[in-house]
Amino acid sequence: MKDLVIIGGASPESLPVNVGDYRRIIAADSGYDTAKRLGLVPSVVLGDFDSTALYDEIISEGFVPCPRDKDDTDAAMAIREAGGEYDLVGGGEGRLDHTLSLFVAFRTISAPSKWFMRSDTLITAEGHFAFSAPRGTDISIIPLDKSIVTTDGLRWDITSKELSGVFISQSNRVQERVVTIDCTSPVFLRFFPEDYTSVEVLC
After folding, report:
1. b vs e for 51-84, b when ≥16 Cβ sit within 10 Å of the residue's Cβ?
2. Across the 203 residues of the chain, what is the mean pLDDT of every consecutive 10-residue run?
3. What Cα–Cα distance (Å) separates residue 27 from each residue in 6, 194, 200?
4. Cα–Cα dist 193/119, whole Å
5. What's the half-sphere exposure (Cβ side, CA atoms, 13 Å) at 89?
6. Cα–Cα distance between 8 and 62 in angstroms, integer?
7. pTM assigned to the model
8. In this structure, are residues 136 and 107 in contact, taking their beta carbons and an 8 Å threshold?
């Protein structure tokens, strides 16, 4: 059983993982609605509860909203509450400013190990990372900050290239059965959700 998942707003209707396999569930505002839809009971609900359709139910469960005027987004509050390794469901699929603020939280607090969205599934790679996937699998490499990246096994391999906010590796493809990635700071590996189920992390 996995340890912790954060469920945010604009969550996907279906997931390539069983969210019920987590020991602890943190819901960020309308992430509570998603948790209920998935038949899950959050351990903690955080936020100002301005986007949930179940405000009265959350209050009846004993959770207290924070002030609407605050520095952190609801998702950032949940990431701080996690206090370590976590997976993330939803978020990043609504307002652009909220999506960008998530990346700020990832850089300043911590990034998720895996991030499941409607149209994207992301895995965080750091240091030396290897995975296997069917040839032709679409992959993009998105840095959290500046990162020197070298790959082996992609259609267009990268050799000691600096990826950053102004340069990402987009729409590359798996060429070999095993792909290795070496990076000096964390990067997201982005897959289509339907392809993610065929990806096997090796190290």
Report:
1. bbebeeebeeeebebeeeeeebbbbbbbbebbee
2. 80 63 89 85 90 90 83 86 90 74 90 90 96 97 95 97 89 95 96 92 91
3. 6, 25, 28
4. 6
5. 28
6. 19
7. 0.88
8. no
